[in-house]
Design brief:
Elements: H1 14-22, H2 29-33, E1 39-42, E2 56-63, E3 68-73, E4 76-85, E5 88-95, E6 109-119, E7 122-126, E8 129-132, E9 144-147, H3 156-173, H4 184-190, H5 195-203, H6 208-239, H7 251-256, H8 263-278, E10 284-289, H9 296-308, E11 312-316, H10 320-336, E12 341-344, H11 350-361, E13 367-370, E14 384-390, H12 397-406, E15 411-416, H13 422-429, E16 434-437, E17 448-452, H14 457-469, E18 473-477, H15 485-490, E19 493-495, H16 509-523, E20 529-532, H17 538-550, E21 555-558, E22 571-576, H18 584-591, E23 602-606, H19 612-623, H20 627-638, H21 668-684, H22 694-702
Parallel strand pairs: 5-7, 10-15, 10-16, 11-13, 11-14, 12-13, 14-15, 17-23, 18-21, 18-22, 20-21, 22-23
Antiparallel strand pairs: 1-9, 1-19, 2-4, 2-6, 3-4, 4-5, 6-7, 6-8
The protein binds adenosine-5'-diphosphate (ADP) and magnesium ion (MG).
Length: 707
């Protein structure tokens, strides 16, 4: 057996289960071992008297009576006996499991785990899970049982057994002895346990301490690979020759621009200009700024520099709506400067696309705005000087590496509205390659934000009506948490990521759908309301979004976070239902959808939460308007993990640069350690040729690292 042994050959799996497991991304031994639990069933025993009616719990109990069997009717028998703990009694019943009659002897001690019913001072337990307890050796009982994400046909037991099987084989064969991505030297320096121990610790932790050490090892590993990957790609880029650029007179551009740059925009553009005209290697710059901070204009100024130098420029957006918006913003500006601009999106006919492609090929059109349609292989942009990418993290992994290939020799500018606190930005991107627009343009107004609870519902509905009657539009965002049926049966859970599960009331998609329906049919039958949710096809989503952008739809109820960057200046009210479910930065992104026009705008956070931390978070939102300040507070409150969770678009989509483990990181130290370690490694072994870095090198090759 090795890490790539097909999952079919694991005992108890076989063809059929292997097919089902594939849906979970489990195909071989390694992917099985890297199918991490999402929580742990907590079987740490409690005294009987502390268990409430209906609670799923574990309890150590002594058998008080010999089991007796009764036949209820043909095919149905039961075994019943009493167990006790101090003064409290409990009746245990098993149905149709006659063998248990010989298991339980009077005076023997067991740990029972199941759903307790309470009647007065006595309890009842039906078909519990049980483990023998040897007095004085209680510590040998396993307390935490992994709870895995499942798929149809695959139960917890199938996964627990398969993982157990592989781990014990791995133990005897030494398979995991040489599986470390992080070299021993680095592990020792940063106090990271060997990956072998981490595999045991994550799947069958003996204690929370063991679990924490294992999590730390996996988080470190993931960030270390990421950091090393970024460092290597930067290194490669630095070796590339730069395209020759000469100085450009910017006056015509600034004359046509309808506003003056803010000081922050000016600084950002100076940095971009300097990279392009005086840089020693192709620019790879991140232009970050809060929503509405005005990232587009300095980027456009960069485009002007490239066009003036005779090069072509591509501007790429992750969705057609965003691409269209950029086109509407920029094409009049550039046309007035004498540059034709074309929009290339999937919705165009083949003939239209061909026409644009021809014009681009001939050099007639040098400014192209579009979606990933721009990336298709037969679309070649001659003399490409600059690629500007909006919200790059929202592109799929394949698209990003295509993008990188396209932009290999030319300058690259990435715009991102994710406010990253300075401490994190320094760690993740280094000081030199980020431009931050940290000041809003004067035209932007701050959005009044309120926190209310259910008792305000009537007034809130009145407020919605008022906004609509005044000709404005309204967003209502509801969170949805996937319904997880198995949780009920799993009982007391210790979440893998403690913080994200602080507020746990489940609000399935169904509830949001019904809410939208009630609003539409009962509350506002006369108002044009549409509902958008994450499970819809992207075509459908774009159409619904499009009708809202056009102003046809007055109220948009949505479960996903609304398109980052969508600009509907007429929207003046953002309502966030169950606001406690959202991270601060997410809430800030949401709020940024309103307050884009000249009208006074509002954000109402609806929450009934009593959780103190949640209330504190929501308060921060009401008092703060600067995304960076909010992100900093978020970092202090919740740790850096959230910054890896594909911010700003709620539901994670497949194919994004997704961190499996790092989103569970709760301390910045671990993050900076991983980045420091990666830099040390690259410095010692720039091409990653050493044997101890072989796995690291492989992983970097397999992944996609565009910071
Ligand atoms: P974002 O950073 O979210 O992409 P945009 O570039 O779309 O922001 O700019 C948001 C709005 O602010 C646009 O309508 C833009 O015209 C306007 N804007 C940008 N810079 C300035 C400025 N210096 N003065 C006035 N308005 C500006
Ligand atoms: Mg933008």
């Amino acid at each position: 057996m090795d890490m790539h042994t097909d999952i079919r050959y694991v005992k108890g799996i076989g063809e059929k289960r292997a097919k089902q497991l594939q849906k979970l991304g489990i195909v071989d031994v390694e992917s099985l071992l890297r199918h991490f639990p999402r929580a742990y069933q907590d079987r740490r025993p409690k005294p009987l008297c502390e268990i409430e009616d209906g609670e799923i719990a574990a309890c150590i109990l002594t058998v008080g009576t010999e089991p007796h069997m009764a036949t209820l009717k043909r095919g149905l028998n039961l075994i019943k006996f009493n167990v006790f703990d101090g003064a409290y009694n409990c009746t245990v019943t098993f149905f149709n499991q006659p063998y248990v009659k010989d298991v339980f002897r009077r005076g023997a001690i067991y740990r029972f785990y199941g759903k307790f019913k309470k009647m007065g001072r006595s309890y009842a337990l039906t078909s519990p899970i049980f483990d023998t307890v040897i007095p004085g050796k209680e510590e040998y009982l396993q307390d935490l049982y992994a709870v895995y994400p499942l798929t149809e046909g695959i139960t917890q037991n199938v996964l627990r057994k398969a993982v157990g099987e592989v781990l014990s084989l791995a133990y005897s064969s030494g398979l995991l002895d040489f599986a470390d991505t992080v070299s021993e030297k680095i592990r020792e320096k940063y106090n990271i346990e060997p990956i072998k121990d981490a595999y045991y610790g994550i799947h069958s932790p003996k204690s929370e301490i063991e679990l924490e050490a294992a999590k730390k090892a996996f988080i470190f590993e993931e960030l270390y690979v990421f950091a090393a990957g970024v460092a290597i790609s930067r290194q490669k880029r630095r070796k590339k020759d730069v395209l020759p650029f000469s100085d450009v007179d910017m006056k015509p551009f600034f004359d046509k621009l309808p506003f003056e740059f803010t000081s922050a925009q000016k600084r950002a553009f100076d940095e971009i200009y300097n990279d392009m005209v005086n840089g020693k290697h192709p620019m790879n710059r991140l232009l970050s700024g809060d929503v509405g901070s005005g990232k587009t204009a300095p980027a456009a100024a960069g485009a002007y520099v490239a066009l003036k130098n005779g090069y072509a420029v591509c501007i790429m957006a992750p969705t057609e709506i965003l691409a269209r918006q950029h086109f509407l913003d920029l094409s009049p500006l550039f046309e007035s400067l004498g540059y034709r601009c074309e929009l290339l999106i999937g919705a165009l006919s083949a003939a239209q696309k061909r026409k644009i492609k021809d014009e681009v090929a001939s050099g007639e059109v040098r400014l192209i705005i579009g979606t990933h349609a721009l990336l298709s292989d037969n679309f070649d942009v001659p003399n490409l000087g600059l690629v500007i990418t909006d919200e790059q993290h929202r592109f799929g992994v394949d698209q990003r590496s295509q993008l990188q290939k396209k932009a290999e020799k030319c300058h690259s500018l990435i715009m991102s509205a994710t406010p990253i606190p300075r401490t994190l930005a320094l760690i993740m991107f280094g000081e030199t390659e980020q431009s931050v627009i940290d000041k809003l343009p004067p035209s932007r107004q701050s959005v009044d934000t309120f926190l209310v609870d259910e008792t305000y519902r009537e007034r809130l509905n009145g407020f919605i009506r008022k906004q609509v009657n005044e000709g404005h539009q309204v967003y209502i965002v509801c969170p949805t948490i996937e319904e997880n049926k198995s949780d009920e049966e799993e009982g007391r859970l210790l979440p893998m990521d403690k913080i994200s599960m602080l507020d746990m009331p489940v609000r399935p998609l169904k509830a949001a759908v019904e809410y939208a329906k009630t609003l539409k049919e009962d509350v506002f039958p006369d108002i044009n309301i549409e509902f958008l949710h994450g499970k819809m096809k992207s075509r459908e989503k774009e159409e619904i979004m499009g009708r809202f952008v056009q102003g046809e739809t007055k109220v948009l109820v949505s479960t996903t976070v609304i398109e980052v960057g969508v600009n509907v200046p007429n929207a003046t009210l953002m309502i966030v239902e169950n606001a406690e479910f959202f991270g601060l930065s997410q809430l800030h992104q949401l709020r940024g959808r309103v307050g884009r026009g000249n009208h006074k705008s509002y954000c109402v956070l609806v929450s009934d939460t009593q959780n103190e931390e949640s209330r504190r978070r929501l308060d921060i939102m009401c008092k703060n308007h600067d995304g960076y300040a909010i992100a900093k507070e978020d970092l202090d409150l919740r740790g850096p993990g959230d910054f890896f969770k594909g911010q700003g678009d709620g539901v994670r989509q497949h194919g994004k640069l997704d961190f499996k483990m790092a989103s569970m990181a709760h301390d910045v130290k671990l993050l900076s350690d991983a980045f420091a370690a990666a830099n040390e490694t690259i410095k010692d072994d720039p091409k990653l040729e050493a044997a101890e870095n072989a796995i690291l090198a492989q992983k970097i090759q397999d992944a996609d690292f565009t910071a």
